[in-house]
Amino acid sequence: MILLSEIFTSTQYGLKHTIGTPITEGKFVDAANDAIDILLTKGNYSSLRRKKIVSYLDDEPDYDIENDLGIEDYKEVDDLRPVDNPYTEWEYRNEKIFAERESRGFKANEYCVEERNGRDILRILDHSSNKSSVVLHTCDSLTAVGTWTVLTSDATNLTLDESRFKEGSGCLNFDIDVSASAFNYAGVELSTAMTAVDISGYQNIGRFRFDLDLQKLTTTQLGYITNAELRVGSSSSDYLAMTATSPVDPGGWMNNWNRVSFNWEDGAETGTPDYENMDYLAVILNYSASMTDATDIRVDEIKLFEPEDLELLYFSGYMVAPTSSSSTFQERFSTTYSGNECLRLPRRYKNMFVNLVLSLLYPQKKKDNDPSYAKFENAFELGWNEMLADGVAILNRDEDEETKVQGNSGVSKMW
Fold first, then answer.
1. What local confidence, expressed as pLDDT, does residue 362 receive?
2. Rounded CA gap, 155 and 42, in Å?
3. Which is the most buried residue in 97, 129, 334, 340, by most CB within 10 A?
């Protein structure tokens, strides 16, 4: 890594020998941050490559990189591979080709990253996971597998909806009448037990998911939702309760179908659930006291997954370390100059970065017709192309693929 104080000293030296006057710390930091933006636009860097173990759920293609996978510093994907067999080949596809192959029912080790509603979504083609999953309830009947009834809550008018559903032949449908109770929630439960299912093998690792339709809710009503809640156990007094404050789909609760996901390890137990004999389920929508009456809340297919661990390699967009020994990173240098902050590139490329900063600062100081600006810019380009040749700089994926098609060297100027 390269100390910011070293970059500052070299930058001051460069300015003094071309202009004779130094630059302020504030203007230097601004230029250094602008330089970071240019570097990230030009490509990725091996020193910013990171690894994250992520959980794939069988036949579940979409994962919000920040919200589902917990990656805040994502810039671009590098590779995806199974943890237990890192030599298995996985192939990246651009999003259009991926969508076409998905629609045609391909099963292969393929993935893409798609931007949707301002979020980066990792998409994984169904590749027949070797991990198990179990449908806890199809929601295709009110009485065939246990008996569904409304909880003591604002829920009313529970019916089987066979006209709008997500899976199978129907789904649960209930209304919200906020005058029906003093509670700020509405929900349904199995009031008589279903055939018991042994889910003990999924304990503390399982992921629960179901589809929740909020088609009839207004945007205002969607804003009143606190969370969706799932209870799983052996009775109405012995269960695991889990909540989700937003759906898997990016952009928050929608007046449409929402895929809702729950992690077993995040749940809280009431009583003593018998997971070897799971026969109780409840689905609840919690909201604020401002909620108003609503109709046609739909719930479909409650399913439990055993995650398959995959190793995601990606390039970070955080180029700054607070100190040389830091294990956490940040996007840019702090607005207030701190010489202990570091640029996360090998030290041998310090002059490349200094020349880029100088090329940004020099127009603020230069005299007319002075060639120094072009000198700094050209020196930066030579340094960056050296990084590219060394494999430290890596072209952005789209640009790299275009370069391979065109058969050129990939060496080009930024401006």
1. 76
2. 55
3. 129
Adjacent-strand bridge partners of 133: 305
- CB-based contact 280:193 (threshold 8 Å): yes
Query: How many Cα atoms sit within 13 Å of 329 on the Cβ side?
Result: 23
Alpha-carbon span 393 to 45, nearest angstrom: 5
369 is written with which tokens? Answer: 């017709």
Q: How far apart are CA 389 and CA 123, in angstroms?
A: 31
Report field, pTM of the whole predicted structure over 0.90: no
Q: Which residues of 221-255 are buried (b: 16+ CB within 10 A; e: fewer)?
A: bbebbebbbbbbbbbeeebbbbbbebbbbbeebbe
- Quote the CA–CA distance of 237 and 357 in Å, as a whole number: 64
* E strand spans, 140-293: 147-150, 155-161, 171-176, 185-192, 207-213, 225-235, 238-244, 257-263, 268-270, 280-287
Q: CA 28 → CA 20, 24, 40, 318, 356, distances in Å?
A: 16, 6, 19, 19, 12
Where do the H-state alpha helices sit in 66-159? 95-103
> Tokens at residue 335, please?
């607005």
Neighbours of 83 (CB within 10 A): 11
In the prediction, which pLDDT does 210 show?
97
Query: 161: closest CA among 153, 170, 150, 148?
Result: 170
Residue 303 CB: number of other CB atoms within 10 A? 21
| Closest-CA residue to 170 (of 227, 230, 213) | 213
* pLDDT given at position 21: 61
Q: Which residues contact 333 (CB under 8 A, 6 or more apart)?
A: 4, 29, 32, 33, 36, 320, 341
Task: Determine the pLDDT at residue 86.
Answer: 66
User: Mean pLDDT for each consecutive 10-residue tract of the chain (415 residues)?
Assistant: 93 71 86 96 96 90 88 95 79 91 87 89 81 94 96 97 96 97 97 95 96 97 98 97 90 92 96 97 98 98 94 96 94 95 96 92 60 80 94 81 44 45
Run of H or E residues at 49: strand 49-56
